[in-house]
Amino acid sequence: MGLILAGGLSRRMGGGDKGLSLLGGRTILERIVMRLRPQVGALFLNANGDAGRFEALALPILPDNVPDFPGPLAGVLAGLDHAAQAGFDDVAVVPCDAPFLPADLVARLRTGTQAGRGAVAVSAGRRHPTAALWPVHLRSALRKALVEEDQRRVEAILRRHDFAEVTWPAEPFDPFANVNDSAGMAEAEALLARFPAA
């Protein structure tokens, strides 16, 4: 199962849905769906508020099931809860602001896991905590960390559960480059101009 995390408040983009920003004639979310859909058996969008704004994506919406927008971990938990009910063993989670995701993301993350561990993507020496494969059996531990301990940092949970690292080259471009602000959008547009197939 795949899950795109779009439940945040996009403060650095001035609010709104950064995944709906246009890049090369398509929204960032459309680009992510095109990359991720062939890699998973079912694809969902974690989003809060009016689901109608994502209608063009034709994806089922999973809202946070923890109140007060506690961050990406709430979206991960919503995905794990749904996956458990639907009979999936793991959830490939990606952010809504990374339009150049690898076409082999899920397969390589899955290959990098052993003995029930999760896996997280790494490029240019940097971990990308919201690009990871989460085993469904971690959902109880994640709920406890999020609800009882108020632990909202994804990286802290990845370390706690010893997620394996799977590395991608950052050349000719970093496939996990994200669009968090206007500077990031300008960089993404320049990258797309140089690599139209990206």
Automatic annotation (TrEMBL):
List the cofactors.
Answer: Mg(2+)
| Residues annotated to bind Mg(2+) | D97
Ranges of residues in domain MobA-like NTP transferase: 2-161
Summarize where GTP binds, as residue positions.
Answer: L5, A6, G7, K18, N46, D64, D97
Q: Which residues form the signal peptide?
A: none
Q: Which NCBIfam families match?
A: molyb_mobA
Q: What does this protein do?
A: Transfers a GMP moiety from GTP to Mo-molybdopterin (Mo-MPT) cofactor (Moco or molybdenum cofactor) to form Mo-molybdopterin guanine dinucleotide (Mo-MGD) cofactor.
What protein am I looking at?
Molybdenum cofactor guanylyltransferase
- Gene name on record? mobA
